[in-house]
Each structure stands twice: as structure tokens, then as C-alpha cells.
Amino acid sequence: MSSKLNNWIWTKDPHWINQWDLIQKESPNGMFTQTSSWLGSYKEYGIDFELLLKVENDQIKAGFGNLIFKIGPFLGYICPWGPFLKTEENLEESIDVFLVRAKKLKAFSAQINPPIFNDNNEFWEHSLSSYQFKKGNIFRKIYLPQDFNLIDLKEEGSFKSDIQLLKSFSENAKRNIKAGLKIQIEMLEAKTPEEIRTAYTCFESNAEREGYSIRNWSDIKESLIEGVAKTNYQILMAKHEGEVLGAIWTANGGCMKSYIMGGVDRSKGDLKLGHLLQWFSIKSAIELGFNFYNISVGGSDGVVRFKKSFYPTTKTSVGSYFVILTSWKYVIFNSVFPFFERNKRVAAAILKLIR
Hints:
Elements: H1 2-5, E1 8-11, H2 14-26, H3 36-40, E2 48-56, E3 59-71, E4 74-79, E5 84-85, H4 91-104, E6 109-112, H5 122-130, E7 134-135, E8 147-152, E9 154-155, E10 158-159, H6 162-167, H7 171-181, E11 186-189, H8 193-210, H9 217-229, E12 233-240, E13 243-252, E14 256-264, H10 273-287, E15 292-294, H11 301-308, E16 313-316, E17 321-324, H12 327-342, H13 344-354
Parallel strand pairs: 4-6, 14-15
Antiparallel strand pairs: 1-2, 2-3, 3-4, 3-5, 6-17, 7-17, 8-15, 8-16, 9-10, 11-12, 12-13, 13-14
């Protein structure tokens, strides 16, 4: 085991972060939740992160982007999607090193979210069970992707043309996109902090209008601005008659672009902005050379119908696994954590005080 550890590092060095982010965006085994921008977005809740990497000849061969969740004496070590492997031969070594690092940090539990889907999991399940991992999710407020609504951007190995894309959507989506393209809508990419703040105002207004909550701008702004600068995220704004009336936030990872959130102002009439923003994000995914656009799952009945109008294919991963490293801490944590789940802002304040 010691010889294996010699090839592994834990780090937040910019050199490795930049290489890691690029791998996560371009590799089909990557995911946006593994980029430094997404991992760093938990900082406001007192949650740190590190990269745990197998390095050979200055190249990353395997690794994890891990969150370090700490409440007083209770520490959890969590990989929201991984491990990343270039070959499955590195799986058991990766789990070995992951658990060694978790124990060194005195974690009471370690959790991973394997990057595999239900049709290809026997090898992984056997390996994880041999390390006493159990199916489940202890840290439920940390987003662990499992369900995807995928729009395939290729046909017979080549990227679809606009005509082919439109043909693959429902009549409703096709009609709305075509109608929207005839309206004088200017699509802009938000890049400056001021532009990103304007876009986030669209998200805030939409959340207030539809009755759901999103993170405070003060909590998200640093990671959002950094994520756009690093091209881990993209934010598009729709402007009509000089006014920004809609915006969309997507995240890059896994050789696909994933829809995170959006918002439109319909006070100026039905400008088909919802379909248009998705359309331009899909086209951006093609420009980046991605295989899929993940329009995501969930939302109100109306939002679900909207997403279905693009005729995505649903795909589900095997879900998260955890292992208990200190039983008594796990029992106590499990009894108090529901409070933190119900009171996110109180939890953030407490986390800052007791770190």
C-alpha cells in the first residue's frame, strides 16, 4: 500500500486544479460537480475541498474531487462524482487511497457517487462491497447527481445540424424556437461580475415568482464569477429592446453541458425566451464539442412538461455509497443532521463559528 501512496497527492495547487478541471469537462467520465468551481461553492457553508490525485509523468491518471464537511468533531469526506478513472484497473487502488486519506483526516464516514449507470455496475458493486460500502446518502444537502435528461447532440457519429436538432424536438418546442428566432432577441454571454449579477437577478426573480428558494447572491457570487472565468460555467442573457429579460446558467462536465437554473421575465409578452435560452445553450454545447446536453430533471409540473418538449432520454446512475469509519460519531451525527437540513442558513452560520 505504501508504494501505491507514493503516486498519490492531495492538493489545491492551481497547476493540478487547472488540469483537473479540463479533464472533468472533456472526459465522458467527468462531471461538473467535480470542477473546482462547484466544489469551491460550498465554502460559504464552511465546507472545504481538496483534490486526491494519482499522478504519473505530470499527468492525472485517476482521482477524486473531495468535499471536507466538518461540524465540530464530525468530519465527512465526500466525493460528489467519482472516482475518476482512466482505466478500471485503478479502481481498488483508488478506493484504498481514498479511505486512507479519510482516516488520516479522522473522518467518521466517507462517501462516493460512482460515475457508472445501472446497466454497468457489477464490477463496481463487488469492489465497493468488499470495502464495506453501503448504498445510501448520509450528506443529503450536498448535491450528488444521479438522474439525467440527456439530449443527444450527435447522429451517426457527427454533430446534428440545426435542422436535425429541431426535428428531434416536439412540435411545441420546435414551433417556439422558430417563433423566438424571428423576434429581435440579443443573446449575450455574461462574463463580467456586473453582467453575472444581472443574470442572477433573473434567477432570483423567477424563484420568488414561482415560490422556490435559491442561494443568496452573497453566498454564490465568488464561485459563480470564478466558474465563468474558468469556463466551468456559462451564463447566457437574453436582451430585448435594451433590457435583460432572461438568463440561463449551465455547467460543463462529463463532455456535456448541464442546465443548472434559469429565469425569464414575461412582463413584456411571450417572447419564447425559455425555449430560446435552452436552444442557444444546446448550440453552445455543440460548439464545445460535447456529446450531450443535460436539460436536468425535476421542477414544477410546468417545468417538467417544458423539459419533456425537448424529448430527452432519461439516464440514471447507481447512486451514492458510504462507509462508516467511526460508529459512535455516525450515530450522533445522524441524530442531529436533520436539523441542519431543515435550517440551511442557521447551519451555515454555525459551521462558520465552530470550524
